[in-house]
Amino acid sequence: MEMKTIKDIKVGDSASFTKTVTETDVYNYAGISGDFNPAHINESYAKETMFEERIAHGLLSVGFISAVLGTQLPGPGSIYMGKNLKFIKPVLFNDTITATVTVKEVIEDKKRIILDTVCTNQDGDLVIDGSATMFLPN
């Protein structure tokens, strides 16, 4: 992991992280977050919902965006200042999610960058759309 400075970042820079969401991931997230919503962990309950099966926590996939921001772009030492997001489509168990961040704006005098943040599934379908504001201390 490389620490970047504001001068290293350019509009259009992009990075991504891909992970397949497993049942174990969902149960671990429920245990860590305390979110035991039956839509995520109860198969018989979930069959009666509009999705007809269990879905992953939305914030689990948002965590993949955070992984990119904290380890790749802008990377270590950066501080997450804000996030806007919209959940477009549910993430199902065994979906492979790719979180991609792309620099939209560099505010050099304030050491901030604004990035487009998206998550797509293995079919290329958009599941999360949003933006993030990051502070770079260097």
Can you characterise this structure?
This protein has helices at residues 23-33, 38-41, 43-46, 58-71, and strands spanning 14-20, 79-87, 96-107, 112-120, 126-135. By secondary structure, it is of the alpha+beta class. The chain has a 5-stranded antiparallel beta sheet with strand order 1-3-4-5-2, covered by helices on one side. The longest helix is centred in the middle third of the chain and has 14 residues, at 58-71. The radius of gyration is 16 Å and the shape is elongated. The two termini are 15 Å apart.
Task: List the main descriptive attributes of the protein structure presented here.
138 residues; alpha+beta; five-stranded antiparallel beta sheet
Compute the gyration radius: what is it? Answer: 16 Å
Helix amount: 10-25%
Strand order of the largest sheet: 1-3-4-5-2
| Averaged pLDDT | 96
Secondary-structure content class: alpha+beta
The main sheet comes to: 5 strands, antiparallel
Question: What is the chain-wise order of helices and strands?
Answer: EHHHHEEEE
Count of discrete alpha- or pi-helical segments spanning 4 or more residues:
4
- Based on DSSP secondary structure assignment, what is the total number of beta strands? 5
Low-confidence stretches: none
- Overall, the morphology is elongated
The share of residues in extended strands comes to 25-35%
The N- and C-terminal alpha carbons lie at a distance of: 15 Å
